[in-house]
Amino acid sequence: MAEIVGVPSGDLSQSGIQTNAKIFWNLDNITLIDLAVERNEGFLTSDGALVTETGERTGRSPNDKFIVDEPTTNQDVNWGDVNISTDEDTFNNMRSKVIQYLSEQNDIFVQDLYCGADFSEALPIRVITQNAWHNAFARNMFIRPDEERLANHSPEFTVFHAPNFEADGQADGLNSQCFIIVNYQAKEVIIGGTRYAGEIKKSIFSVMNLILPTLRSERRKTYSPLLPICPDTGVVLEIPVSEIDTKSSKIIFGNNGKKLEKSILDGNCKLQWKVDWAMRWYALDVDFEMYGKDLIESAILSTKIIKLIGKTNPSGFAYELFLDEKGEKISKSKGNGITIDQWLEYASPESLSLYMYQNPKRAKKLYKEIVSKTVDDYLDLIEKAKNQNELQLLMNPVWHVHNSLVPKENMIMSFSMLLNLVETSNADSKELLWKFVKKYKKDISEKDNPIFDNLVGYAIKYFNDVIKLKKKYKKPNGEEKKALEALVKTLDKCDDKMKPEDIQTMIYSTGKENGYTENLRDWFKLIYEVVFGLSLIHI
């Protein structure tokens, strides 16, 4: 039989969890943190803060979040790349696995909470977790009920959180071992394969984005789009409104046993969030609105409202998030990806504008290697613009980046090639790198090539900040040293009039003559590691 510690307000068996585990129910945060440390879930800093690790995933996993396509809500969901559907069979399969997994744990942690500060609209929830620290996170993020509400708590939505349980990817009908599935009909969320605690919060917030606009029936009778401001404290009163007098533009409500009236026209009322956005559109004649994907549902609701009051909704543009090389959300603590400030250290603002211009509705991967690729795309588009007609220019992104004033500068070489040059030459100043560039292409100057001159500066900055730190030079053994000495003698025979292909052939021949007949790749690997401090793979 399960041992219960804390203040229970229900029975887990109603959720299908049959267990002999110790159930920690509605514990305070201090106790939960102590348990987290005791269970080796994390450690305390000198200031008493709990530090935990979330493993591979340090942010949300948008491609692993699903909504069950079922009759009660499928007409209310804006299906697509953001709201990805799955079927009830997949949900039921994963739910049974999660329930079984939680039932087999030695400890289970439960919190009974509310989402929403206004209890008249708040959603009662239950969060069941495998770890103490995730339970503490939930307790910190949501509203804690008082003793009376806790005693009568009946969750409308339950979150089952099993971060250490991993799915079998495609075999389970999913994209990976991670999954977050919301089922509005069952009023449940199941989470597995990710220790990122934010999925608990974000899932319930998503639920609220769909539930609140529909206004549950018990709330409709007392709902008002405006809330009164207390005349004594100046605080917005989040209380039921007993009457709305449309003729006199007043709302009537009770406060501390008194019946009060407030005009909505004298600045003593505040719009609720469900209508605030739409009213701003209406009052300010907004004709274009950009918003992140997390506000899509709010934008849909505001569009419905503004149409009802007789005005055209603004054109909307939902933009996506930035991801790292692995497709995961960028995290400052993990250091995956790069920041906008870092981009501007290694490339021009115009290249960043191009990056933002391209595919704005798709999640963008943002890491160092993307910078040089985007710069080369930018240079290529500038080159194409020279021979384009008016219509073609309108379709060229750089025309918009430069407000129709596209530079006419000839590009000397690609940024990728410039980075390779600075890597191999170890040029740590613009002056030195320019000398190498002028050997490649004569009769050019810094003054006549301002865009490329800036690229030279960016390449040097990238070299000093990134490349130089990664260089590791190999010390050759006896035979390797002998082969490299032969290479020096070979290169001494070269002059400026020789073709690159001829020089390359001489290097090949030197390798073959010094023991690298069978595998010339090893020969070039030796050159890169000894001379340049770089691996062949990197090059």
Structure summary:
The protein contains 19 helices and 20 strands. The protein is an alpha/beta fold. The longest helix is centred in the last third of the chain and has 21 residues, at 450-470.
Please state the structural category: alpha/beta
Walk across the major sheet and give the strand order.
1-2-7-8-9-11-10-5-6
Task: Give the averaged pLDDT, no decimals.
Answer: 86
Main sheet summary:
9 strands, mixed
CATH topology of the largest domain: Phosphoenolpyruvate Carboxykinase, domain 1
The CATH level-2 architecture of the largest domain is identified as 3-Layer(aba) Sandwich
Any idea what the CATH superfamily of the largest domain is called?
Phosphoenolpyruvate Carboxykinase, domain 1
Q: In which range does the helix fraction lie?
A: 40-55%
What would you call the shape?
globular
How many domains, in number, for the residues? 5
CATH class of the largest domain: Alpha Beta
Percentage of β-strand residues? 15-25%
- Cα-based radius of gyration, to the nearest Å: 32 Å
Quick one: how many beta strands?
20
How many H/I helices?
A: 19
End-to-end distance = 63 Å
Low-confidence stretches: none
Word description of this protein:
The structure is a single chain. With 539 residues, the chain is an alpha/beta fold. It folds into 5 domains: 3-216, Phosphoenolpyruvate Carboxykinase, domain 1 (3-Layer(aba) Sandwich); 226-271; 273-319, no CATH class; 323-470, no CATH class; 478-532. It is built from 19 helices and 20 strands. It has helices at 29-38, 88-103, 132-141, 147-151, 198-214, 217-220, 273-284, 296-308, 340-346, 349-357, 368-385, 390-394, 397-401, 415-425, 430-440, 450-470, 478-492, 500-513, 520-532, and strands spanning 3-6, 22-25, 43-44, 50-51, 65-68, 84-86, 107-115, 123-129, 157-162, 179-183, 188-192, 226-228, 241-245, 250-255, 258-263, 269-271, 288-292, 315-319, 322-323, 364-365. The strands form 6 sheets. A 9-stranded mixed β-sheet has the order 1-2-7-8-9-11-10-5-6, with helices on both faces. Helix 1 (29-38) packs antiparallel against helix 3. The chain starts with a strand and ends in a 7-residue tail after the last helix. The mean pLDDT is 86.
